[in-house]
Design goal:
The structure holds 2 protein chains of 2 kinds. By secondary structure, chain A is mainly α. Chain A has one domain: Potassium Channel Kv1.1, Chain A, CATH 3.30.710.10. Chain A is 57% helix and 7% strand. Chain A has a 3-stranded mixed beta sheet. In chain A, a hairpin with a 4-residue loop joins β1 and β2. In chain A, α6 packs antiparallel against α7. The radius of gyration of chain A is 24 Å and the shape is elongated. Chain B is α+β, with helices and mostly antiparallel strands. Chain B has 2 domains: 45 residues; 104 residues, no CATH class. Chain B is 47% helix and 12% strand. Chain B contains 9 helices and 4 strands. A 4-stranded mixed beta sheet of chain B has the order 1-2-3-4. In chain B, α7 packs parallel to α8. The longest helix of chain B is centred in the middle third of the chain and has 16 residues. Classes of the chains: A mainly alpha, B alpha+beta. Chains A and B meet through α6, α7, α8 and α9 of A and α1, α2, α3, α4 and α6 of B.
């Protein structure tokens, strides 16, 4: 009994020194904008939550230097919907419509950094859809990746891999 | 956002695999693999190319008479053979519905299947590589599968 009381006292004293601890978590974007979110939102972000857990909830202001104030609201919106159980095909379609390629990439990196599994899976699919049926050059440009194969290496690989799919064109069903 | 671009070539393997696994085999091999060395080596990840599934192609042409032609079979052969022979790709599962004996022989040799598993045409062949290197071979035949999808086509 005595123990219980003292632990209650303990938590009281914490919430006194940090009045916001039970109320909201402050996420600070790389460009120093503060976003106040419910603790349930923070739970969706594993990186944030583990930070909170490590400090026993004493720290409620979390700097996210890798995430801009442009991207963070999207992440928060997705997490809110996720908690509410309202991630539908329609919501995802609308959500992705708002995003250009650059934003999709940034959000993906943000989701990766924050370790939000659902968002990461969703954005993986979005990216896969956007690079499907595209040339190697397009994929490189899309991600801004430097080709580090030598021309000889690339030619050899292309030759080896490419003819797997040559002559397989579903459109030529009718010729027989 | 130069910095974030550099991150894409060096994304963690898990992240990259998550994206690449959602691409069709064609996009993987004609696109993603050739992007850069780091992506190419991501394809050493067995889960990425463990399944060679040509099912989508069958679905595309299921309504045509193409399926029964020699030409179609040779197309399947021409897709299967380089993949089987490639040293970069190690398959754990092959889903095809038709191919030639020659292709099956090839699969058998590459993955050291015993000859009794080298079945003739008109089979739905599904090779599954078990954890310890031995192949479990399922040759799902066919009757029920076929009845639904193909018998009425010819």
């Amino acid at each position: 009994m005595a123990e219980e009381v003292s632990s209650q006292m303990n938590s009281l004293s914490i919430s006194e020194t940090n009045p916001s601890s039970s109320a909201t978590i402050s996420l600070v974007s790389g460009d120093d904008i503060v976003f106040k979110v419910e603790p349930t939102i923070a739970k969706e972000m594993e990186t944030v939550q583990s930070f909170i857990d490590e400090t026993d909830g004493k720290i409620t202001t979390i700097p996210l230097p890798n995430i801009s104030s442009h991207d963070l609201p999207y992440v928060i919106e997705y997490c809110e919907k996720s908690i509410a159980g309202k991630i539908t095909k329609e919501f995802e379609a609308e959500f992705v419509k708002k995003l250009n390629n650059e934003e999709v990439k940034e959000l993906f990196l943000a989701a990766n950094y924050l370790n939000i599994k659902k968002l990461l899976d969703f954005l993986s699919q979005v990216i896969a859809d956007r690079i499907a049926n595209k040339s190697v050059e397009y994929v490189r440009r899309y991600f801004g990746i430097e080709n580090d194969f030598t021309p000889e290496e690339e030619a050899k690989l292309r030759e080896e891999l490419a003819w797997t799919f040559t002559g397989v064109d579903p459109d030529d069903e009718d010729e027989n | 956002m130069e910095e974030s671009n550099a991150e894409w070539a060096e994304l963690t393997r898990d992240c990259l695999t998550n994206i690449l696994s959602r691409l069709s085999a064609k996009d993987q091999w004609l696109g993603a693999m050739l992007v850069c060395k780091s992506w190419f080596s991501a394809f050493k990840e067995p889960s990425l190319h463990s399944v060679f599934n040509l099912q989508p192609y069958f679905d595309l042409s299921r309504k045509s008479t193409l399926l029964s032609t020699r030409k179609f079979k040779s197309k399947i052969d021409s897709m299967l053979q380089p993949v089987v022979q490639s040293t970069h790709i190690f398959l754990t599962q092959i889903c095809i519905q038709r191919c030639s004996d020659r292709s099956l022989d090839l699969v058998g040799q590459r993955y050291k299947l015993s000859s009794k598993f080298q079945y003739p045409l008109f089979l739905f062949v599904c090779f599954t590589k078990c954890r310890f290197g031995a192949f479990k071979v399922e040759i799902r035949s066919v009757m029920s599968f076929y009845k639904d999808r193909f018998l009425n086509l010819n």
